[in-house]
Amino acid sequence: MPAPKILMITGDFTEDYETMVPFQTLLACGYTVDAVCPGKKAGESVATAIHDFEGDQTYSEKRGHNFALNATFESVRAEDYDALVIPGGRAPEYLRLNADVIKSIRHFFDAGKPVAAICHGAQLLAAAGVLKGRTCSAYPACRPEVELAGGIYADIAITDAVSDGNLVTAPAWPANPSWLRQFMAVLDAASMPETNAA
């Protein structure tokens, strides 16, 4: 059985660790991952931002790497993918204004496919209207958006993640190990062929 095919929707000033780490980890574990950004083509890059927790009241932000896209958003179809990853950072803030991004996100929820979102990725979930009654973690400053969208905000440690059915969320990049472990468990469960009891 082929490995699940994952779509990652990202954009300029996406959080560096929330983009690079899941992209490379999922590839290393044998999954196919297509990273896309509206308005950019395969081979082009998005700028990343590094968010650090240095004792201030909120995170600090620094310029990160150039993250190379390997697919073109306008050419992909959500229906061709088994799962979705939404990194955080600054990108979700403006990507939520793109109707095609919102349509893509809704497809994964309508079809019950695995979705992983971290940090400010919850802004896209809220804008897509897919959080009603769902437990969702996010960067704490996004709690009002989760709750206004009808979601149940998971107030968990920054190193933790939470699963609610097909949805796996976490507050920020320090949760990458837990977030990715839970997401891969959901992916593997979704890809297991159903067997009939004898």
From TrEMBL:
Say yes or no: keyword Transferase present.
no
According to its UniProt entry, the protein's GO biological process terms are: proteolysis
* SUPFAM superfamilies reported for this sequence: Class I glutamine amidotransferase-like
Q: Name one GO molecular function term.
A: peptidase activity
Keyword annotations from UniProtKB, A to Z: Hydrolase, Protease
Q: Which domain of life is it from?
A: Bacteria
Q: Which PANTHER family match?
A: DJ-1 PROTEIN, DJ-1_THIJ_PFPI FAMILY PROTEIN
**Pfam families with a match to the protein in the record:** DJ-1_PfpI
Please state what the protein is called. Answer: DJ-1/PfpI family protein
Question: Lineage from the top down?
Answer: Bacteria, Pseudomonadati, Pseudomonadota, Alphaproteobacteria, Hyphomicrobiales
- Record has Protease as a keyword: yes
Homology family: Belongs to the peptidase C56 family.
Per UniProt, residues of the DJ-1/PfpI domain are: 5-184
